[in-house]
Amino acid sequence: MVDWSVNSWRNFPIKQVPEYSDKVKVVNVEKELSLRPPLVFAEEARRLRKRMADVAEGKAFLLQGGDCAESFAEHNANNIRDSFRVLLQMAVVLTFGSALPVVKIGRLAGQYSKPRSSPFEIIGDIELPSYRGDMVNDMEFNKNAREPNPERLIKVYDKSASTLNLLRAFASGGMADLTKLHEWNLEFVRGTKEAEKYKNLAAQITSSLEFMNACGMTPENTPQLRETEFYTSHEGLLLNYEEALTRKDTITEEKGWFATSAHMLWIGDRTRAIDEAHIEYMRGIANPIGLKCGPSTDPDDLLRLIEKLNPLNQAGRLTLIARMGVNDIHKKLKPLVSAVKKSGLIVGWCCDPMHGNTVKASSGFKTRKMDDIMTEVKGFFDVHGEMNTVPGGVHFEMTGQNVTECVGGVYAVSESNLGDRYHTHCDPRLNATQSLELAFLLADLLAETRGKVGKPFSVIA
Ligand code: TRP
Ligand code: MN
């Protein structure tokens, strides 16, 4: 990598970072973080890059989801378990419906910072720094709480380490066992149409497993049946944190630099200027990375960004995460897909149907409509169908909790219900039922894309 070092980003203009008043404390925190062990291992990140290469080629489907912003207050075992469960349920629906391996990546174990549209928030005649996620300051609206505190970076490291530890235990310790599928159901999903569909699907998988069992393949002798690969990701926003955890791979031949705060990092739509700090940092790390592309993305700029972020044109290195909004998806995505296709540059395409569809309900709550989310996903598949390219995956915001933040869905959260259980620290998330509903739609779209006869779930629909 020419003229790159772990801290070369410091020579470039940077957006969306906090102003700390105590600069000495910042340096001490960075020093302390740089002495901590890495959270992930380079070889894992390299393996994910291989999985993402399959995604780019249509041999696997990417499922990336989790909280908009994790919070310290809601960091506990039950929440982690429930998010993991919903993601696995979705993965099972997708694997069965599409007959493709599903690459599972959580927006988890590090997703604690947020870019904001304004550096200040004004309520009445008081102006304070905006809340930038628990990694930076506190959501409460008072001067003390909103003061950025560098020690929060250490707390993020600690919380992320314990989240990751539990996720690893779940992934390989029995929680992902396909023979226990029916036990994954969450209390409040019971009785809904989605739960019925899921139960039906679990029954079909159980009979396949019984058949395999009779043939001699059991969870005891076939680890693939009881374990899963689960990866973590977050927006790589606070580059001093990322720098402190960027380590040289000393074990394998390819002695690259890896971000070890997560397996995958993505670049936000607000920090993707080609001559600025975030692109400078990301171009040098060897992890698989994502690039969010909003409606303002220009096709030529995009090609230049891709060349800069993936100069060797390696499959699996770069995934473009389109977040256009339901009204723009056809108009804005197609020129990008077309330009990339013509250029011969290799990328994976992923759909974020959440961030382009945030609206303010009359009650004042920020929300998203299930209909818009589903329609954007369909539009994403349409565009790739027309271009004969690969609709590689989805990226979405969800929680395993029974929240009422997005409206619509079979369980019909209405605008007047939004206040019932609105707990997000940032953007509105799909709840477990809505997430499952999205998974069933995706399974149908994937089955169609693959030219299968009939829809696997229309039996009950
Ligand atoms: N190991 C396979 C995979 O991860 C099959 C599998 C095991 C699985 N447990 C799972 C798939 C849970 C989805 C969800 O894909
Ligand atoms: Mn968000």
Explain what this protein looks like in three dimensions.
It is a single chain. Helix content is 38%, strand content 13%. It has 461 residues and is an alpha/beta fold. The protein contains 12 helices and 14 strands. It starts with 22 loop residues before the first helix and ends in a 12-residue tail after the last helix. The chain has one domain: TIM Barrel. The model is unreliable at 452-461 (pLDDT under 50). Helix 3 runs parallel beside helix 12, helix 9 (299-309) crosses helix 10 (329-343) and helix 10 (329-343) runs parallel beside helix 11 (370-387). It has an 8-stranded parallel beta barrel, surrounded by 5 helices. A two-stranded antiparallel sheet has the order 3-4. Helix 3 links the parallel strand 1 (61-66) and strand 2 (102-107). Bound molecules: tryptophan and manganese (II) ion. Residues 68, 355, 397, 426-427 line the site of manganese (II) ion.
